[in-house]
Design brief:
Blueprint lengths: L2 H10 L1 H21 L3 E12 L14 H14 L2 H9 L5 E6 L13 E8 L2 H25 L8 E7 L5 E3 L1 H35 L42 H10 L1
Antiparallel strand pairs: 1-3, 1-4, 1-5, 2-3
Length: about 260
Amino acid sequence: MDALDILRVLRRRWKITAVAAAVLVVLVGAVLFLVPKQYKVTAISLVTPALSQDVQNPYTVADRVQSQMAALLVTVLTSPAVTDWYTAQGANGTIEVTNANGVTDTSQTDSPFITIIVTDKSADGAVHGAQLVRQRALDELKNRQDAAKVTAAQRLILTDVLPPADPTTTRASQYRAVGLVAALGLVLGVLGVVIADRVLTARSRREPAPEQPVAKVNGDHRQGVLPDLRPVAAPKDESPTIKFSPVRSEEKQGGGSRR
């Protein structure tokens, strides 16, 4: 069965198609109503050297060490143990930590930027999650440098480019749910119409054809019973007859005397 055959079936069973379309519209509307909108917070931090006598403007200093440290922090912040720690601290939203403004493969990038994206059902939850991830990044950076006994002049810090605040509304989850329900409903609806068409066609073929009306002869016709025989009146004989009128005797005599 190709697309043209399916279109013919949908057109032939237009009532069933209309019902399936109405049900699909109701389901899509219900998904839009039930799936809540979400909030997203994006925070961007930059790994820079700490201010010192040698570094007066950290934004003008670009070193591969900063990029390596950013890649290290992204690896730690996305590890399963740290992800579980986010959940234990009350961050229930979706957390994404990437390097180089969205590139997840840190081994192929060379950027000192760390991008944190948190999506949650509430605005406060999104902000809390972004702040939690940023604070964990600060702690990891400080603890590792403390363990390596790095001097203050050589330390690296995180500088906020975009702070974790100002949540924005996103409907990405709603659009994904609507797309999934619409696609699945469309497939199931078309399949249901095709199956219903085959069932109805097979049922109509199994039903016996209606009997043709039989003309009544000599009374009502009943199957298996001989009709009652009724005497039929014989047709009247309407053959022409010749009638003779009698002749009076006076007319006969008068006629004879005239002669």
